[in-house]
Amino acid sequence: MTKTVPADVMSRLKAILGEGGWSTDPARLAPKLLEWRDRWTGVTPLLVLPKTTAEVSAVVGICGQAGIAITPQGGNTGLVGGQIPQGEILLSTERMRAIRDLDAFDDVIVAEAGLPLAAVHEAALRVQRRFPLGLASEGSATVGGVVSTNAGGTAVLRFGPTRDLVLGLEAVLPNGEIWNGLKRLRKDNTGYDLKQLLIGAEGTLGVVTAASLKLFPLPASKATAMVGLANPQAAINLLVQAKEAAGSGVEAFELMGRRGLDFVLKNIPDQRDPLTGTHPWYVLIELAAGTPGAAETAMERLLSKALESGLIADAVVAQTVTQAKALWSLRENQSPGQKPEGATWKHDVSVPVSQVATFIDRASEAMLAFAPGCRITAFGHVGDGNIHYDVIRPDGGEDAVHSAKREAGSRIVHDIVADLGGSISAEHGLGTMKTDEARRYKSPVEIAALTAIRQSLDPQRIMNPRVLF
Ligand SMILES: Cc1cc2nc3c(=O)[nH]c(=O)nc-3n(C[C@H](O)[C@H](O)[C@H](O)COP(=O)(O)OP(=O)(O)OC[C@H]3O[C@@H](n4cnc5c(N)ncnc54)[C@H](O)[C@@H]3O)c2cc1C
């Protein structure tokens, strides 16, 4: 694949995009070429900033004819390196931010790819609706990014991942053609579903330019609590009780260990331990209901029963929105809180919910044997069986020494996940980071079928060539 762009191709691209539509300025490029944890730095001969779907189509068409590869990028919050170019043209959606429609009758918002997720939330609120996908990165993560990574987040338990929230897509396919699939149908059973192929394709099957997204009514009541408990199995037992108490109203069920909480309290300003004693594990629970007061009543019932039976040791219920935000801040700062602690092997894995405790026990025993003194934090969307299992270098240890063992350490964790019937990427995707690793766990039959699909849509492999199979 060509990495230098011939002068005539460069001129054609610049002419189509016009002033403000492209850049080679190192200062303009710099933030787009660095991943937020400083893990990957990229190179690109040209940043293109199309403003319309027609411009995306022209760019992809010209690149296709010239055999030049493209890496699409939204908010650059991806955690597996797929948005960082290594010689490809970098196509940013930052100038495609329009809301094309907002409709409370069809419960749909049609938004362009570069619109940040937080702006989707704000727009939905204007018509008394909500878009339930919530990520700590939502101020920067874009519609095109969450669709292309099939992002998960905190409310998957109730609403499913992005895949369940998309009604239609508009995309430019690798041959430069525009596919307008911006439907808003709840039922459309007409054979293969192209939109589902593009969701989670990580930019390999084309550029997503707009999406029709499902909106939901606002809950009439909401209750947020943090509980302290002895171990992950107690958390899973509590989840079963929460579902019994609130049915589908369990919106979030997030596990955190004491060590992760300590890192947040130590390294992030203005955080407070909400419980008086210390506990080995914590769960943040959010319940919602369609009738006023119902969520609060369900939470009270759940917590008093759990306290009485000894399933949980302590609990605090947020009395105000500010208190609820303070509890969420402890959860959302789990990653930033551990960053100053040094080199970390990060794992975004899932196992069947019933196997969460077994996974944490087995992985922790194996890690402490493999990397004595390592500091483990396990947290995440445990209601979906999704654990962010992070192994930080020993206190006072050297980053380089720890990083050198990353591949072998992660292999041990992934093998345990596979043994328990889990996935080595629960919600972040494969990107450039995990594609090779995923080959070990997918069957050759599946990889051959997936490769054939890609080959038929992108025979030159110009779209994000280093990502996926
Ligand atoms: C603090 C923090 C918390 C996070 N929490 C979560 C979480 O809870 N759950 C979760 O799932 N993820 C989480 N993430 C990861 C990340 O925010 C998501 O993967 C998000 O969906 C990426 O969106 P983006 O716009 O930043 O995409 P980018 O990072 O720009 O791109 C990600 C991938 O999508 C492709 N892509 C982007 N836009 C397009 C497009 N328009 N068309 C085709 N391909 C495209 C890129 O090529 C790349 O492969 C978190 C990240 C951070 C930094």
Entry keywords:
19 strands, single chain, 36% helix, five-stranded antiparallel beta sheet, eight-stranded antiparallel beta sheet, binds flavin-adenine dinucleotide, Alpha-Beta Plaits, 469 residues, alpha+beta, 17 helices, Uridine Diphospho-n-acetylenolpyruvylglucosamine Reductase, domain 2, Uridine Diphospho-n-acetylenolpyruvylglucosamine Reductase, domain 3, globular
Overview of the structural elements:
The model has no long low-confidence stretch (mean pLDDT 96). The protein has 17 helices and 19 strands. The protein starts with 6 loop residues before the first helix and ends in a 12-residue tail after the last helix. Helix 1 packs antiparallel against helix 3 and helix 8 crosses helix 10. It is 36% helix and 20% strand. By secondary structure, the chain is α+β, with helices and mostly antiparallel strands. Flavin-adenine dinucleotide binds next to strand 3, helix 5 and strand 10.
